[in-house]
Amino acid sequence: xxxxxxxxxxxxxxxxxxxxxxxxxxxxxxxxxxxxxxxxxxxxxxxxxxxxxxxxxxxxxxxxxxxxxxxxxxxxxxxxxxxxxxxxxxxxxxxxxxxxxxxxxxxxxxxxxxxxxxxxxxxxxxxxxxxxxxxxxxxxxxxxxxxxxxxxxxxxxxxxxxxxxxxxxxxxxxxxxxxxxxxxxxxxxxxxxxxxxxxxxxxxxxxxxxxxxxxxxxxxxxxxxxxxxxxxxxxxxxxxxxxxxxxxxxxxxxxxxxxxxxxxxxxxxxxxxxxxxxxxxxxxxxxxxxxxxxxxxxxxxxxxxxxxxxxxxxxxxxxxxxxxxxxxxxxxxxxxxxxxxxxxxxxxxxxxxxxxxxxxxxxxxxxxxxxxxxxxxxxxxxxxxxxxxxxxxxxxxxxxxxxxxxxxxxxxxxxxxxxxxxxxxxxxxxxxxxxxxxxxxxxxxxxxxxxxxxxxxxxxxxxxxxxxxxxxxxxxxxxxxxxxxxxxxxxxxxxxxxxxxxxxxxxxxxxxxxxxxxxxxxxxxxxxxxxxxxxxxxxxxxxxxxxxxxxxxxxxxxxxxxxxxxxxxxxxxxxxxxxxxxxxxxxxxxxxxxxxxxxxxxxxxxxxxxxxxxxxxxxxxxxxxxxxxxxxxxxxxxxxxxxxxxxxxxxxxxxxxxxxxxxxxxxxxxxxxxxxxxxxxxxxxxxxxxxxxxxxxxxxxxxxxxxxxxxxxxxxxxxxxxxxxxxxxxxxxxxxxxxxxxxxxxxxxxxxxxxxxxxxxxxxxxxxxxxxxxxxxxxxxxxxxxxxxxxxxxxxxxxxxxxxxxxxxxxxxxxxxxxxxxxxxxxxxxxxxxxxxxxxxxxxxxxxxxxxxxxxxxxxxxxxxxxxxxxxxxxxxxxxxxxxxxxxxxxxxxxxxxxxxxxxxxxxxxxxxxxxxxxxxxxxxxxxxxxxxxxxxxxxxxxxxxxxxxxxxxxxxxxxxxxxxxxxxxxxxxxxxxxxxxxxxxxxxxxxxxxxxxxxxxxxxxxxxxxxxxxxxxxxxxxxxxxxxxxxxxxxxxxxxxxxxxxxxxxxxxxxxxxxxxxxxxxxxxxxxxxxxxxxxxxxxxxxxxxxxxxxxxxxxxxxxxxxxxxxxxxxxxxxxxxxxxxxxxxxxxxxxxxxxxxxxxxxxxxxxxxxxxxxxxxxxxxxxxxxxxxxxxxxxxxxxxxxxxxxxxxxxxxxxxxxxxxxxxxxxxxxxxxxxxxxxxxxxxxxxxxxxxxxxxxxxxxxxxxxxxxxxxxxxxxxxxxxxxxxxxxxxxxxxxxxxxxxxxxxxxxxxxxxxxxxxxxxxxxxxxxxxxxxxxxxxxxxxxxxxxxxxxxxxxxxxxxxxxxxxxxxxxxxxxxxxxxxxxxxxxxxxxxxxxxxxxxxxxxxxxxxxxxxxxxxxxxxxxxxxxxxxxxxxxxxxxxxxxxxxxxxxxxxxxxxxxxxxxxxxxxxxxxxxxxxxxxxxxxxxxxxxxxxxxxxxxxxxxxxxxxxxxxxxxxxxxxxxxxxxxxxxxxxxxxxxxxxxxxxxxxx
Length: 1536
Description:
Blueprint: E1 7-9, E2 21-23, E3 29-34, E4 37-42, E5 52-58, E6 64-69, E7 78-83, E8 88-92, E9 97-102, E10 109-114, E11 121-126, E12 131-135, E13 140-144, E14 151-156, E15 163-168, E16 173-177, E17 184-188, E18 195-200, H1 213-224, H2 233-239, E19 242-247, E20 251-256, E21 261-267, E22 290-291, E23 299-303, E24 309-313, E25 322-324, E26 337-344, E27 349-355, E28 359-364, E29 369-375, E30 381-386, E31 393-398, E32 403-407, E33 417-420, E34 428-433, E35 440-445, E36 450-454, E37 466-467, E38 476-482, E39 500-505, E40 510-513, E41 523-524, H3 525-533, E42 542-547, E43 554-558, E44 562-567, E45 572-578, E46 584-589, E47 602-607, E48 612-616, H4 618-622, E49 629-631, E50 636-638, E51 645-650, E52 657-662, E53 667-671, E54 676-681, E55 688-693, E56 700-705, E57 710-714, H5 730-738, H6 755-764, H7 801-811, H8 854-859, H9 864-879, H10 888-891, H11 903-919, H12 923-933, H13 936-946, H14 951-956, H15 962-978, H16 982-991, H17 995-1004, H18 1008-1018, H19 1024-1040, H20 1043-1052, H21 1056-1063, H22 1069-1081, H23 1085-1101, ...
Helix pairs in contact: 11-12, 12-13, 13-15, 15-16, 16-17, 17-18, 18-19, 19-20, 20-21, 21-22, 22-23, 23-24, 24-25, 25-26, 25-27, 25-28, 26-28, 27-28, 28-29, 29-30, 29-32, 30-32, 32-41, 33-43, 37-38, 37-39, 41-42, 41-43
């Protein structure tokens, strides 16, 4: 329990928690969670008087999330709390100690309730949805997991000990039965946002309330259909109970637990604000808590938007069911309300509310009025100040950005507190009342702001303060009102204020502000001090300011521990007190109204080193010395505290009595004259930051601490007289003063560590320490552990750690600290300014950058004796400088002192440091040093030689001049080339305008694209280098097969002809088409036509006649070819129609959709299409086309010519025939048709020859012969040749169609010809072998038109015709054979025989020559021993492959040699045969003729069908001209 008579302004209740406050069942205590403690208030006096502070429950280490009393009879002193540290603790409020604790949750606990029916059951829920029931008497627990959602609140039923209602973050409400395995009774869906509170109706049963009649009638039909069908209205009423829920969705719902659904929804009304401290930015916030008053089933109390409380009457009809609590202005909360807790008193029912406005209010539910308000504090209490005018008016500066003004003498309300928040927006760290003007309060903040509030006027609470236009850079630590000093003291009395405001802040500067003109610039009093006292040296950083009450003396406390006394108005320095060795935190002058006037010269001071010194300045003031005195002996020493002193206050009621506040967590009252500790107060739970002696009660003292509270305590009631020993540091202090200080190596400390650790480091590193007070919302006392606790206030004020310290460090780079700032800009801690080295930025402290002057730095961190020697040596050197300009020889080994001597010495120091960097492998640091020294050329040359040039060096090289820069860039470009960074090298060359070099560099390394960009951007368009780049790149691309890209290059180089050539190189149809179009655009029409024709031929191979015509139609010179392609398409169509094929082609043919006249002859149909589609109307067009086609000569076909190629050449001949036919030039027509027929005959494609004859000459040659000029022997010869081929086709047609049994005729051996069966087999093998060599895989599945081009079809047709033999009439066959008489020509038989003889002799000659060459090669191989290995291998492989041939040839030759042994004889034979050939007339030789002997053999084999005269004629011809070899060749054609 708290010490008797202590009055407390407690810490604020925690925010955003569904239940963090509760009242005991006996109505005596009210507890609420405040950060990681529970504050207990005694509310036993009820509505009549404000509560008193009872005590605190201390034990949790993190924010408390839930708190509840036990409401079972006889256990009103027990309560439970849950915390973010994962534990639940059970407390006894009688002893303020925990009786049990458990940690069963794995996640953050978000809700807690003590069962109202089971005395030892505590139910808690966490953020993952786990419910833990804990029976503490038997230490038993059970877990439930009804929903995997975040729990926001939970409430145990007051009517059924097993029922618990749970509210979730997403708006779901679940009711569970903890006695059942399947625990969920109802899932209540209706809310769509967080459930903030659940409240059970205190009266069981679900009565028929008038307001719910409509609802009940609507569901009456449902109720009658209960699952079991037996539940009556009575059972419903008895078993049921209503549940109220409040949600963030701004509605309250009443739920029926029997029906599991909502029976009423209450929507929050919009509230008109009635003023008050409400920030407009937070008006959207809402927390909807509900309370169902006991015994009242139809009334509910709820919170609302802006802090108002509403009483809802559920029986009220209409929309407005609510009444506002609090009638008069200021009774309501000004921010949202979090918890409502009922307090039972015999006479009335009270309700306690906690809110975001940090007030605790008590309401009388019978009158709906607010009985009392208890303010609370949301931050550290940095400053306390009593008004000198309005006695008892205490101003409190708090870390929650608000000032409280407490009227401590108020009779009707002991907590009469006004709050000021406008324009502050930062922690309030300093306060000072105006000495004479009532209600004028100056304040200073953590962000350096200084302002003045008027707290007296009636409208003051809403009136913003005046703010000084001059801001401090760091936290304001001290404010004081005092007489004006220059320049404000110069004016007359009416022109200037009688007192001005002085502010002192963390950067060590004191500003004087004019209260009449705060918008004007404040002035730094150091300027006046410097001018008045002619000070040349650097002034110390100021940390504290205090005016003597009569305004005649000013005391300034400094960061180095000294205190300086000045005399206004010009601030003449009277004396310096050199007593403290650490930063001064507090200075206070004794009051003037005592019986001993000399005591008014006493000045008490406290610093970081825990000892309070009191000095008497009477003798100093009365001294007439012109020079300032120095005081080193104290008048009194007050020792006993064990940590830094933060605040002092003299008693206004006594003489020589002082109270001090300290970081050790206590306040100490001293009798100064006796140096005695009188009384020690230990009621706070943290470090003390401020203290004030009550101006009206000599026994009362007010203290503020970092436990967020202000205590008023009585000196006479304290049991302790001196500070606690704790972890005593006084022995250490003694040790420190007797032994020389050795600097310990400091470890890196994280910025977040607490100031408790900082205390130790301050003490350890004695000479530089900060006047730190406290980390706002981030610290605990030394006893509470090493770890600083973060403030668990829901509107957490974020700490700007690294940002602020770094900015301050660099603003004041002359200041120095030996350790990182542990206290931030946001703290009211006195920062340590200057000693030795610049302050490192805290944010960079994690990875300390390498020093650029390590040797010098090391030398400056040696032992103290050596450093003292350095000072002496340096002073001596500088003294001799007047005589000798160069002081460097005097420094000798102390090179590092060059930093403080002349330039030559500095250069020596830089050279040593640079050499050191190079040896340690840090050339970058060496280069930086040389740059500082100004020796850029040396750096650049050294780096270039080592290949260590960098972008940074190149960037700064212009410092050494233009030539040096150009040289450096070239050297860097070479270095980059070695590193294969060619593009970067080229960029650097460009920077010095070496465009050609850059382009050449890129070109040589094949970066053509980049080179072209640079050349095109930087050179003239006509520059030849550009064309050279394009052509070089094109050649490279062409070589790699990137033809399209190469073509673009040629176009870029203005060489379209080359572009066309390279595009056409690939040879596929699309490339050729593009190349042709490109050639056309470029004006190369002839080339374009050639490519178009090639493209069309390619398309023809893929049977795309449509595409081919599209390509050809662009050129007039290809009109003739268009006719050829058109005829080819129609011919293929015709062949395909005559012989449809079952096999499907992989690529379907692409025909034109022309309308064809099928009834007309083929040539007429073709001509019609030419005229209608291709527009060939005039004779000129016909003549032109004929000339175009005559100019093209196709080579004769052979058996190896591609079938499609053969067909295309035939189409060419037939096109010429059609053109002649159209102009009726029949002789030309006959020659062209003969050409087409013989081409198919030469290609060995007999079927195709037959088809062409039947398509072109369906009626035979008679009609044609009649149209010819009989006098023109050539045309008649042509006609004879044509007739012969037509008859040849008919002959074979008959041969294939003869009956099967006539095949025995083949065995009838004719006179001269042996025809054994082996021969037939040989022939078959020969033919099939020939076919397989002709047919490729592509042609295996060839379309119908190709089938006619294929000798493989011969046996197929034969087989097909077998079935039709029965219908062939022998008479018809004989009549057809008579027309074959033309084939049995004596002239042609003789001619062909002569031609055969010549061919045979030529073959023998060729074989002989081949054999001779073979033998000669073999002879050379054997005799030439010097042949190389390669040629040996090659020749041996050749001879091996040739051997089989030569052997066979030799054998053949032996047979032949019997007849023609020698070469002369062979020559003679050849000559004779050629002479014989010459005797034949030319008319026989011009046009080809079928083999006569072959035809004779066929006729003889036809036997029964052959007329006798033909039979005889054939025999005669065979006897006359035949031979075995001739028969062998001829038989190959027809016996297969």
